[in-house]
Amino acid sequence: MTSASGYTLWFRLLLLLMTSYWGQGSQLYRCPSGLAYTVYTYGHKCYQFVNMERYWGEAQSYCSYSGGMLVEIYDQSTMDFIRSRLNGLGHWDNNGVWFGAHDMHSEGSWQWNSGATWSYTNWGPNEPHGYWPAYRVNDCGVLRREHNWRWGTYPCNTLSYHYKFICMYNMSPPTTTTTTST
């Protein structure tokens, strides 16, 4: 390979990487303003990875305060996106991350917090299972690192179970500019 073609190939790779990086960032303007922590976009959603531990209900309240909800994972491509981001966050070394699934209304009957249709699942080994069903403890969904971020169930509001969490927001419509020629 000649040095000119080597530079051309290197330049094309650099351009592709820059386009991918800034293409991702260019959609962040469509997310709610003032979001703290790490924010990514995927599809038509904004995802806020909140680096503080809370009980499930507190995490949901945190998300709803800014107009969002705990992340709901409707398909494999979104699960793959979430998994890749979690694996890339070096400072997220804990075992669990809350997401927006629960069986609060009926033990063993899982649903999304928003009421969206429940069709996709990614349960880990021996999941879902109820914790202390005789005591009517509600279970909530947690992504488990030890199972490659597959889903697990833990009590929503007991002292031992507080985790980091991911909020999900709808994107605002894209802005467009119009130019006129004279």
TrEMBL record:
Domain of life: Eukaryota
Record's keyword annotation contains Signal: yes
Residue stretches making up the C-type lectin domain: 42-157
UniProt cross-references to InterPro entries, sorted A to Z: C-type_lectin-like, C-type_lectin-like/link_sf, C-type_lectin/snaclec_domain, CTDL_fold
Pfam family, one: Lectin_C
Signal peptide residues on this chain, from the entry's feature table: 1-25
Keyword Signal: yes
Keywords in alphabetical order: Signal
Name of the protein in question: Perlucin-like
Species of provenance: Lingula anatina
Organismal lineage: Eukaryota, Metazoa, Spiralia, Lophotrochozoa, Brachiopoda
